[in-house]
User: Fold these one by one.
Assistant:
Number 1:
Amino acid sequence: MIRINLLPYQEKAEKETQARQIIVIAGALAVFLLIVGVLHLWIVMSISALEKDVKTKEERIVVLNKLIGEVDQIRNEKRILEKKLEVIDNLEKNRNYPVRLFAEVASQVPSKDVWLEKLAQKGPSLEVEGKARDTFAVVRFIKNMEGSMYIQSVELVSSKQIEISGIQLQQFVLTCVLKSGV
């Protein structure tokens, strides 16, 4: 019988198979490294773009915060101006009040019987000092003042009889509470 030794052929085929496997493994490793490299590059570029976007947005936030500060300042100035305008409107509305009040008081004075010497307004009260011919003139003046649309109440603080040039007169002091909103 003839024997043929096929061992070197099998070794050669095995070596070729091993070489192919090494090439396939090396190729797969190269493709894997290439994919990892591309993914890494894409992630780095994405991170860079996002960081740039964040920086741009932070700069925009700084600009907008500055604008918000200016808007708040303008609102505060507007509120201050509105308060000033309100004060001016109140002054304009009440500009004629003292004149009307004193004209009303003057119209309530009984002529030839009562003489006013002092009128002083302090907040919501009015102090009236004067002289009258007699007590009845003082009472008539008080009644007239109570009927005024500017006066809420009248109180006689003091009344005393004095003599001037031989004539007996009644010196009086009144305090009046003024009505608000008139």
Number 2:
Amino acid sequence: MKTRREWLARAAAITGYALLPMPLSATPADMRRTMRQAFGDSPIAAGRVALTLPALAENGNSVRLSVAVDSPMTDEDHVEFVQLFAEANPLPDIARFELGPLSGRAEIETRIRLSAEQSIVAVAGMNDGSLWSGSASIVVTIAACLEGLI
């Protein structure tokens, strides 16, 4: 069993580590690095992906977002996934949706939490291995994604 002094020293170290400043938001470079980790060096072409969100959100706690991918959703040509990235959230990789030919339509509608003015990128992975993207920008007046980081 540890002595009381050792236990107090460990507790102080853990508390000190928890109080270290942490970045409250990612940067565009962080988002690009996260996308590279997810897709490697595979080229991502612009197009086929329509990302819709408001230009201004008063509250970043619940922002409506929709993604539509131009795909017939047949066995021969369909979307396998759609992944969302936010350049200024604490974690840039915010969601991934798995699809297939039985999905019927390559459309997703959801709500996400956002902090700050930023661009959102949606990347669609097709069954032929190609990657397509679309993006949109938003201004958030009351940021979300900050609790637990301050």
Number 3:
Amino acid sequence: MNISVTPPNSFAPDGEDMKRALRRLAGGVSVVTTGSGDRRTGATVTSAQSFSVAPPVMTVSLNRGSSAWRELRETGVFCINALSESQRFVAERFSGQGGIQGPARYEGAEWTTLATGAPALIHALFAADCEVEEIVERHSHALIFGRVRALRIGSGAPLIYAEGSYGSFV
């Protein structure tokens, strides 16, 4: 006999419920950077991932209200900088803690550029320098597909984010 029972703690979620649930999902921390000069900006994300290795394509999801989204859409280039456990301060700066915005987010770390001209963190676990291939806009966010034009590989242990805190996987 099949009986359908609503599981305990099951409900129709709103945005805050989704944020609370997704905090339980551990993810690697990256900083997405774009722009140049006084227009440099970026955002801390846990949504960066590989989409394809041949050809090399990365994806990242950005809030369409963010300065990083606006600049990325205008320039058509971005860099995904995967952070190491020693780069928590970079994640905090690019998350906007303390009201830090624009080029001020880049202070305290060493940066360069690769093929596209998007800022690349010199000591990142890896920096995937991308050119926008496709954008899918839905609801509050955009899913950006980026063809990797240059790759820089570093070393270290990844910075992880879960339950509202940064940590590492050792």
